[in-house]
Design a protein that fits this description.
This protein is an alpha+beta fold. It is built from 16 helices and 16 strands. The relative contact order is 0.15.
């Protein structure tokens, strides 16, 4: 197979299991992408870098059945004339990634869409829809409540949506530059704040890359405790979303009950780990704190109680005619379209895309846990709700299993700073989907480059398709069923 030829010729990259790198030329850059697509793989992320001397490079990381393949295309010094072949015709998600890469590095692709993505000083031309009775509704970028900024431009006839176009990146935080200002042994704290609802996933991915570069052997107890925290993060987010989805369907009872259950879970987490949300819990070499046997038993009991009530609430959601009517058929994303767009994570699994890094590319301790991969075919709000309900139960099972068999030993070891120019890649299946951190060490314990990727980059465009043919009042419900991050794409 063509893909296996590339894989066999690539070199191993430190960090996550089954990650390989490959230097390519311009023609090979496109051929690798085409071969990955033909094999059923997806573009996970794309980023570019430019050295002070002017030399540049662009990187594409692909999720394949063999593992993560990172293609590197070196570009000669050329100032603003630096250009590489765009991948948007092969992977639609590449377009926004390429535009963001240009805004950050000045390295441009051949993509004809030259609109800036992160530079909001420039005017932004939305695609216009012409026709009798068509008008536009602009929503955002400032929203009610505490939601982060993002602009949504609807083209509608009456209330029926003909087109939706998003423009994000309003809080350009300068994350990639900020990483380079931190010691490499402290970068995990910033990684945890790429998207706060995925703090465990991002900090674990960062530490996984760092530990691989440093040759650090993670203690088994630390790995198991990290998995506990990751599944607790998944469970907490699913509980919050299930309540919000009930509320958006006009069922305030659901919001009240799931808010209570999430609070119960957060209190149990706080009793075990000393904090409600698990920022800075994953650290280089292991965990910031250990968990006592008594605390582990209490946390397992708390999780069991939450999951038991969640089963009862699912029965109520399934039997409630009004909720069922709002969920079923709304925001449908067919498996065929999801595959074309490269949709990842829970949104992908709700549309028949059977990818879960905990199963497909597992790291310890997931290699021992036999995680159930939850997949639905419907692709609508009801399918995404069903995935959340089932994944919540699976996360509860995993937490109890992990806590019942925590290995003895240390919960953390010392990590040495890696050698300059060492490269590592971390990949962790967060609650929203797979997060990736690509890390390159600089001299004397510094960071030369760090790229953090959230699967929302792939899934925001899918939301634009899912809303088509629906009515404007259903957008909050459909949007919440994806619940994508704004912060995670505001690099």
């Amino acid at each position: 197979m063509p893909l296996k030829r590339w894989w066999d010729g690539a070199h191993k990259i430190a960090g996550a299991s089954s990650v390989r790198g490959l230097g390519v030329g311009a023609e090979q850059w496109l051929q690798v992408a085409s071969d990955v697509a033909d094999s059923g793989g997806v573009l996970h992320t794309l980023w570019a870098s430019r050295e002070p001397a002017g030399d540049a490079a662009v990187y594409g990381a692909y999720l394949t059945d063999l593992g993560v393949l990172v293609a590197e295309l070196a570009l000669p010094c050329g100032g603003e004339s630096v250009c590489y072949p765009g991948l948007e015709d092969i992977f639609p998600a590449a377009s926004r990634l390429q535009r963001a890469a240009f805004d950050l590095s000045g390295v441009r692709s051949s993509d004809p869409d030259l609109r800036p993505w992160l530079n909001h000083d420039a005017p932004y031309e939305f695609v216009r829809v012409d026709g009798e009775g068509v008008h536009e509704i602009g929503v955002g970028p400032v929203h009610a409540g505490i939601i982060e900024p993002g602009h949504f431009r609807f083209s509608v006839v009456g209330e029926k949506v003909l087109r939706l176009e998003e423009h994000l990146g309003y809080v350009h935080k300068g994350l990639e530059q900020r990483f380079t200002q931190l010691p490499i042994l402290q970068g995990h704290r910033l990684a945890a704040r790429v998207s706060g609802d995925s703090a465990v996933a991002f900090s674990w991915a960062y530490c996984q890359a760092l530990e691989g570069m440093s040759g650090c052997a993670l203690p088994p107890r630390a790995a198991w405790l990290r998995a506990v925290c990751l599944e607790l993060e998944r469970l907490a987010n699913h509980l919050g979303d299930l309540g919000a989805l009930g509320n958006d369907a006009g069922f305030a009872f659901g919001l009240a009950q799931f808010s209570r259950l999430k609070e119960d879970l957060l209190r149990a987490v706080s009793a075990a780990f000393g904090r409600r949300y698990l920022f800075d819990m994953v650290v280089p070499g292991g965990m910031a704190v250990d968990v006592s046997t008594q605390a582990a038993h209490a946390l397992a009991d708390g999780v069991r109680a939450v999951c038991t009530e969640t089963i009862e609430l699912r029965g109520i959601y399934d039997e409630h005619e009004g909720v069922r009517d709002r969920f079923t058929g709304a925001g449908c994303l067919t498996p065929e379209l999801a595959a074309r767009l490269g949709v990842l994570g829970l949104a992908g699994r709700a549309s028949g895309q059977a990818r879960d890094a905990r199963v497909d590319l597992p790291c310890a301790p997931y290699t021992e846990l036999a995680v159930a991969k939850i997949v639905q075919q419907g692709g609508d709000v009801a399918a995404r709700v069903a995935v959340r309900f089932e994944e919540a139960q699976e996360s509860g099972r995993l937490v109890r299993r992990l806590l019942a068999a925590l290995p003895a030993g240390e919960h953390a070891v010392t990590v040495a700073a890696p050698a300059a120019d060492a490269i590592g890649v971390g990949l962790i299946e967060g609650w929203r989907g797979p997060v990736l951190v690509a890390l390159q060490a600089g001299p004397e314990g510094s960071i030369r480059r760090c790229h953090a990727h959230d699967p929302s980059w792939q899934n925001w465009p899918a939301l634009e398709y899912a809303i088509l043919g629906n009515i404007v009042p259903d957008f909050p419900l459909i949007n919440k069923s994806f619940n994508l991050t704004y912060s995670g794409v505001d690099l």
